[in-house]
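Methods — Computational structure assignment.
A single polypeptide chain was analysed. Its primary sequence is given first, followed by the predicted tertiary structure written as structure tokens.
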Amino acid sequence: MVRVPLTPEERLRGERFGALLRQARGERSMVEVAAAAGLSAETLRKIETGRAPTPAFFTVAALAAALGLSLDELAAACVEGPQAAEFRQAG
């Protein structure tokens, strides 16, 4: 299976998501949060740095639970531009 390259918007969304995770993690170590989410620290590192900009849904859900965030909060924080207004109105 050939993976379609990500668009610039998808890469930016991944970077916003990673920054949000880093901010939400605060003083907690990457190892601590990754373990709480059932992930490896390397997987979390890749997500936080944008090297894995499209993590699987269950990975995102596990990170949200480990960080005390709702999936709605994560989605709203990662949407930008015209989609952001549409998303916030729908929520």
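Note: The radius of gyration is 13 Å.
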